[in-house]
Amino acid sequence: MGDSRWGDIFDVLTESAPQEALDQYRVVVLLGQMDTGRLKGRLESFVRRGGVLVWCAGQATPDDAALCGAVLRPELRVGRAWRWGAEAPVAEAFRYCPAGEPVPEAEVVAATHSGDPLALRHAVGEGAVYTVLIPWFEAGHGSLCGAALRLFDEVIGAVQPVRVEGPPVQWLSTRGAGHRTVLVTNNDGAAWSGKVT
């Protein structure tokens, strides 16, 4: 994932990662299946201490309402458009799991065109849990659904405020007292021309 739109910022942790390792991060994006017992307890502790967890239907279950902020229904529906907040709808086909009424501490950040929740932000302790109701973040025609990609942009952008535009290139950034350093590495045979914001 070195050439991701968010830079080379990802570490891969297995579900056996100890609490001390999780607590070194500000955001954890859960990918793949997980052990329903031990890891969920550590993730909840991570969030309560101020961390941000992003996961999806398929990982979260109806039993996880306390983390999700709503009860996920074990069924699959088809959507044809989604919207972020009050923005205009985006036409895109996807499948999603419906959810019950969110608790007062949960916010619907993305919804289907008909108004069903598609992504929830639930304040838990000092942190937050983002639940994408699209199983495995997948689009019907591509690798990531646009609504999931938008959520990643929002959540990851809060901790990685750098954007690099242009041909694919490996890059990373770090911050120190009063400054941010961005390293762009071009291993292509052609000169790179782009924009760092």
Order of helical and strand elements: HEHEHEEEEEHEEEE
Distance between the termini: 20 Å
Overall geometric form: globular
Rounded mean pLDDT score = 91
Q: Name the beta content range.
A: 25-35%
What's the helix count?
Answer: 4
Nearest-angstrom radius of gyration?
18 Å
Structural class: alpha+beta
> What kind of sheet is the major sheet?
7 strands, mixed
Report what the structure shows.
With 197 residues, the chain is of the alpha+beta class. The chain contains four helices and eleven strands, in the order αβαβαβββββαββββ. It has helices spanning 19-22, 38-48, 65-68, 146-159, and strands at residues 27-29, 52-56, 77-84, 90-96, 106-112, 117-124, 127-132, 164-165, 170-176, 179-185, 195-196. Strands 1-2-7-6-5-3-4 form a seven-stranded mixed sheet, with helices on both faces. Strands 8-11 form a two-stranded antiparallel sheet. A two-stranded antiparallel sheet has the order 9-10. The protein is globular, with a radius of gyration of 18 Å. The mean pLDDT is 91.
How would you sum up this structure in a few lines?
It is built from four helices and eleven strands, in the order H-E-H-E-H-E-E-E-E-E-H-E-E-E-E. With 197 residues, the chain is an alpha+beta fold. It has a seven-stranded mixed β-sheet with strand order 1-2-7-6-5-3-4, with helices on both faces. It has a two-stranded antiparallel ribbon with strand order 8-11.
Keywords:
197 residues; alpha+beta; two-stranded antiparallel ribbon; 4 helices; 11 strands; 17% helix; 31% strand; globular
